[in-house]
Amino acid sequence: MKKIKLILPILILALFIPFMVNAETCDINKITINSITLEEKSDNVKELEEARVNGKNINLNLSMSEVGDNVKYKITVKNDSNEGYELDKNSFNLNSDYIDYVLESEDDTNIIKANSSKTIYLKVEYKNVVPEDKFESGIFNDNKSLIVNLSTEEMINVPDTLKNPNTGDSILLVSFFILLILGISFIIFRKTKYTKSMILIVGIMIIIPMSVYALCKVEIKFESKVQIKEAFTGSVNRSTSMTISNGQRLQKENFWEMIAGGQTINKYKTKEECMSNPPSVSFECVNKEDFDFGKTISQEVYVKHDIEKNIVKKTYVCFSKDGAEYCVQGGENFNYEQEKQTLIAEFGESNCSVYDGHIYCGFPNSISMKLFSNGEIFTKKSTCGPSCRITSDGVSSCEEGKMFC
Hints:
Structural class: alpha+beta
Strand content: over 45%
Distance between the termini: 119 Å
């Protein structure tokens, strides 16, 4: 019992450790996001919607397709208060399994000074490959809510703060609690040998200036939607004037196709654009995803690409005859002797002529093809019809037929 009585004054003294209270003068509306702008992005990244600010919320809607795809935004934060705020980058730690989010400041400090603006940068990067079984119809949606904390912390002297009615109520409650404990303790110990100790404790507490921390905290919230497209692997045919080379990256595009009478009239980026340009006949707008090769020329002679994870690996010129497809590879890294034999087999030896450095094969008044030993290849539908070619360095394209020749 004596030990308890000896410890009790010490416990009472511990009650006077400064308390932390929230200052009611904290005005979070003095922190505002002035703007967000796209600073830079890699080629595959697309903004499905432009980044926008809604109060203290920032909304992102992006499309990516390959590891390494990234985008960087410039964000301006304004502090109209009289206190400096610290940006807690450690609170921004909700990176997904596949997407990384990184915050950087313009001057490498985390402080937004009083009555000033600060530029910070947000970098979003596709970091880790999404497993194939995670894709649904070639799409994986990685949506996250991320929060960044801004806070200021100021030491406040209690006697001065009591003059401020906005924060004084909190301090008065703390003071009342302390005095109540002191009063009860004094009544209990007034007739004991601890009376002098209590008087000493009260005296010390009167001398020691009391202080509290006024903490102001602001949250900036990022609503991030990242649509990851599965890389395409396979073959695709085209008959367009667009030039495409081996090693080039191709990616399917999402678009709206206007269809009338079973025919494609036009293509649009959005459904709204498609619906706002109605033809004079009944039509429908159909959402599709395909490679955007430009204007279609012909399907009688065409180019075929072998694509591996969006990269063109091999290119062929092809034609159709009696329901069958015939193709010959051209461009760099091809085997001339092998492709020459393929050409002879497709046209028949009687329809081919072999020269020094090239071979020519053709059906009378129909399709013809010329293959050179350097990989260049040329095919045409009749004398004035559409044609396609591959250069020796693997660049392919097609051309329309001539109306008069």
